[in-house]
């Protein structure tokens, strides 16, 4: 008869934390929830569009893109979605009008992302004095 090997009983501290919880450590914090707020998604979308434009158009590499909630003043022709200021090398995107002034039925996540990217391209085009479609992947061919 073979000798029976007995494994030692697991210590409570080895499998569980100090208060009986699993997966805790004094060194590593628990994972943070993913960024999923409206402002977070807006910033990420603006950031990815700006990164693309800066990589493609040298004129935009030193431009500062900012996000503001609302413009300070309404214009006679409506609420502006952005402000391009070449003298200050700055483009300001207004988050609330971009997100809230979508046509009815187009207020889902995909349309919001398209509206944000469109505003970034339109603002950048105004800044460099071109048409928005010229900033796209085929715009250099013209």
Automatic annotation (TrEMBL):
Region (Disordered), start-end ranges: 1-33
Compositionally biased residues, Basic residues: 12-22
Biased composition regions of type Low complexity, renumbered to the chain: 1-11
Organism superkingdom: Bacteria
Protein name: Zinicin-like metallopeptidase
Organism of derivation: Microbacterium commune
